[in-house]
Amino acid sequence: MFLSVFEMFKVGIGPSSSHTMGPMVAAARFLDMMRASPFEFAGVRASLHGSLAFTGVGHATDRATILGLAGFSPDTYDADKAEVVLAALAQTQTLTPPDLGPLKFDPKADLIFDYDTKLDGHANGMILMATDAQGDVTLREVFYSIGGGFVMTEAELAAGKATDEGAPIPFPFKSAAEMLEMSVASGKNIAQMKRANEVSRGCDESLKKGTARLWQVMNDCIDRGMETDGILPGGLSVRRRAKGIHDALQAERGMNLNAPHTINDWMSMYAMAVNEENAAGGQVVTAPTNGAAGVLPATLRYYLDHVPGASEAHIEDFLLTAAAIGGLVKYNASISGAEAGCQAEVGSAAAMSAAGLCAVMGGTPQQVENAAEIALEHHLGMTCDPVKGLVQVPCIERNGLGAIKAVSAASLALRGDGTHLVPLDACIETMRQTGVDMSEKYKETSLGGLAVNVPNC
């Protein structure tokens, strides 16, 4: 099983990897299908189902789908160009994606939020259609946005997990137990094995440049969040808090006012800065999702800025270790809030972050596995109940607490020798089973929990 670090961590836009990035990616894939088709097309249509319908407006799913059909993609998204395209669409009801010519598209009639028809494959389903001059559908595809910006067609999802057709990799672990066995047999740590897998499909230089860019985007996102205030879009009137907290923390330095637990405020602030940027539709990195995008950057920033002896030379090891753990969670359970609740998003992010931090602080592979297990175990059962369908409440603060848990989990693991009762594999399977049993009300539909109990929302 191979999942690249650049699949686990993808540069994209907010507010949601599954509800914003995924539909945009699906639409871009559909355009490629149209280009490869022998038919001539005159228009396009789309219908959103399940969680994409229930919380699509709050997550800008409609906007993302339209822009995807216009030829935009998350990794190269240009906000100014997007506004020009949307303004032109309002006037002409026509999209003009590259190499396809004009396509009729009326957002009011051709983009349907179908709250009643649930598609079988996944909670985040959408159907894209292309029509001829008479308005008849001549090309149709079902897509599922399965979390973290990953998208699969109906046929791909039905084919299951065996979709990796690349060259064999040197360390094909599919479980934490296999990962540890291979580590012992090879004498390599988790980052070294993951690096060998990556290089077998690419090269050292591309890995180095790619991971450097990932951290640059993450770190820039923290910095923008710490410098920006105001009200987040969406109608909840949630005020950005990261800048105010950062300003206060800076003012307290050198005044002997800092209690030891103030470090938690720094970690929370870093994470909140990212998730406020995400909520505003800014550029973020899935880690492993947008809704949980603040946990890992906050943990890594904590390491670099606050841990004595920290070195930027360890950033790649941190990301590779985290990606290895994230791959195990995705392969054996889920990273999708619509599929398994927030345990699959912030829980997975905390496990990945704890593993990365433990590794760069000298932890053995056994301690790294323990750190990931501790962090995930103490997110089990966490629901996804965004108020008004927005990735704001409780999501922004939840990322801060996820980072704190990640650091605590890494610290606890480093205090032991790696021996522990609950294996990471058992914890991941428990998360999967919990997600299966969880009521749909608590899986990113905004039909239960805080979403229905917050007054005036």
Question: What does it look like?
Answer:
This protein is of the alpha+beta class. It has 2 domains: about 140 residues, 2-Layer Sandwich (60s Ribosomal Protein L30, Chain: A), CATH 3.30.1330; about 280 residues, no CATH class. Helices cover about 50% and strands about 10% of the residues. It has a 5-stranded mixed sheet. It has a two-stranded antiparallel ribbon with strand order 1-9. Helix 13 runs parallel beside helix 16, helix 13 packs across helix 18 and helix 17 runs antiparallel to helix 18. It is globular.
Give the rounded overall mean pLDDT: 96
Oligomer: single chain
Helicity range: 40-55%
* SS class: alpha+beta
Given as residue ranges, the uncertain stretches (5+ residues, pLDDT < 50) are none
How far is the first residue's CA from the last residue's CA?
43 Å
How many domains is the backbone divided into?
2
Q: What can be said about this structure in brief?
A:
With 457 residues, this protein is α+β, with helices and mostly antiparallel strands. It has helices spanning 5-8, 17-36, 51-54, 61-69, 79-92, 107-110, 154-159, 176-186, 190-200, 204-227, 242-252, 262-279, 295-306, 315-332, 337-340, 346-360, 365-377, 395-415, 424-437, 450-453; strands at residues 11-13, 43-50, 94-95, 103-104, 111-114, 124-131, 137-147, 150-153, 283-285. It folds into two domains: 16-159, 60s Ribosomal Protein L30, Chain: A, CATH 3.30.1330; 176-200 and 202-453, no CATH class.
